[in-house]
Amino acid sequence: MSVSQLPKNTEVISGEKPSTAPTKLFSAVVVVAALGYFVDIYDLILFSIVRVASLNELGVTASTELTNQGLFLINMQMGGMLLGGILWGILGDKKGRLSVLFGSILLYSLANLANGFAQTVDQYAWLRLIAGVGLAGELGAGITLVSESLPKEKRGYGTMIVATIGVSGAMLAYLVGQKLGWRNAYFVGGGLGLALLLLRVSVFESGMFQQVQAQGEITRGNFLSLFTNGPRLGKYLRILLIGVPLWFVVGILVTLAPEFGRALSVTGEVTAGLAVFWCYFGLVFGDFMSGALSQLWRSRNKALQVFLAFCATLVAVYLFGLKGASPTTFYAVCFVLGMSVGFWALFVTVAAEQFGTNLRATVATTAPNFARGAVVLLVPAFKYLSGAFGFVPGAAMLGAFTLVVAFWAVSTLPESYGKDLNYVEQ
Prior knowledge:
With 426 residues, the chain is an all-alpha fold. It has one domain: Growth Hormone, Chain: A (Up-down Bundle). The chain contains 18 helices and two strands. It has helices spanning 28-57, 63-94, 97-115, 121-135, 138-149, 155-166, 169-180, 182-199, 207-214, 230-254, 257-263, 272-296, 300-320, 327-340, 344-353, 360-373, 375-389, 391-411, and strands at 10-12, 423-425. The longest helix has 32 residues, at 63-94.
């Protein structure tokens, strides 16, 4: 991209080129980012898998209370991610991408170890809040580092690898949760995170960030600057809206799979753990396909539009095509539904590519966490709509709204494929 093609509020970085940018897809930075996201997803999704078993042991047994307390704990975790997204995003642009990768994984690893000792729902909730703060930093910092370290023609493949390996952490979470019990599952997650810290020693800081850091006059990590410029704010808000449908699917449809199974008269018992397992198994393939298509089509936006249409189709199948179905059919639809929302890493890649080096980590970290944190708003909206119109119609209304808005956001966002990232926001 030439200087004349850059937005007016950007400035090309002058001086030496970024140093030591790796050209191999399976470089240390990609492998470590992928493993970091693997542990991140393991810990992020673990509560959805062990929700019923853990709350039962803590004295919550009534069906209604299991749903209400489960939604409360999800909100605490997602609320922590909202706070953490801002914290780690700013630190990523001020102190460096690596500092976030180290700090965030240390915090959520310790929180998850402590979670295994929780004795009350209140303790559980506060520890999910702290873990949420820690979990908020991993993906955005990893994608930013990979995007800045790989050549522009390869970075889509790099983030595809990160996502494909990373989302499979949910499957390990299911297997560990089933075999070892919910407390040990949290201990395993914390241990994996602490072990990953040792691998981080082999990763170097982004050359683009170091170049901007060396120019002390450039303001970095100013979160409020996203709201003081009209076009910049509009672009940022559209990015946030793209990620909301995925968390409608995961936070509402899949997490509450047992409740939807009953509402749809599924012929056998449906468990949240298996629904999450099959959804994230589908996500592995979806993230691979969306990343590959964005490279083959040379368009991030076209790939996102196709996957949003795919998602809308599968949400309709889930809500209106499973009446009286068997659990096997239900889980099969969860698998394909997971494929349809497999554009998460592509969404974060687009967020990183839309902004300059001095704001890139702030955007790439806050955007996915604000999208995840949308569950805090989606939950009360769903409770209101389901109370007023019914469980399934309420979910359909909410899903349709999130998908239409996301499709509009993608359609009006500038294409970022092949964009030169070596510039700053003025």
